[in-house]
Design goal:
alpha/beta; Ribosomal Protein L15, Chain: K, domain 2; two-stranded parallel sheet
């Protein structure tokens, strides 16, 4: 009676090379240029026609969202100004924030301050006036 031939992968269990000779000959996907769409970037000219036919020109290039982060030096909070007050002329402390674009209202002012800046938020103006200070808008 003839035995049915078992699959190669079951017959080769426990044998290191699975019938491929040297260990390095059939190892991984390196001998076939990667798996799937691997290597389809800049240098794979031979794959480009099939990719363009299958997916179109949108396969290559940038996609998705752009996050625009604000420059941290454009805004300034009152709490920072309150910590950095040094120069005093008469009753007022003087703070020059003209290199910043806007003063925001986070924090509490405890001293009378003359602040020079390009613009102020409404709540920052209220807090400055409440503390007895002045807001000077420069260009």
């Amino acid at each position: 009676m003839v035995d049915n031939k078992r699959k190669k992968n079951t017959r080769m269990r426990g044998k290191t090379t699975h019938g491929y000779g040297s260990m390095k000959k059939n190892r991984g996907a390196g001998n076939r240029g990667g798996r799937g769409m691997a290597g389809s970037g800049k240098r794979a000219d031979q794959k480009k026609p099939t990719i363009l036919k299958k997916y179109g020109s949108s396969y290559y290039g940038k996609k998705g969202f752009n996050t625009h982060t604000r420059d941290k030096n454009t805004f300034l909070n009152l709490e920072y100004i309150n910590k950095k007050l040094k120069d005093k002329k008469g009753d007022f402390f003087i703070f020059d924030a003209s290199k910043y674009s806007r003063v925001l209202s986070k924090g509490v002012l405890t001293k009378k301050v003359k602040i020079t800046c390009k613009s102020f938020s409404k709540s920052a103006l209220e807090k400055i006036k409440k503390a007895g200070g002045e807001a000077i808008i420069c260009s």
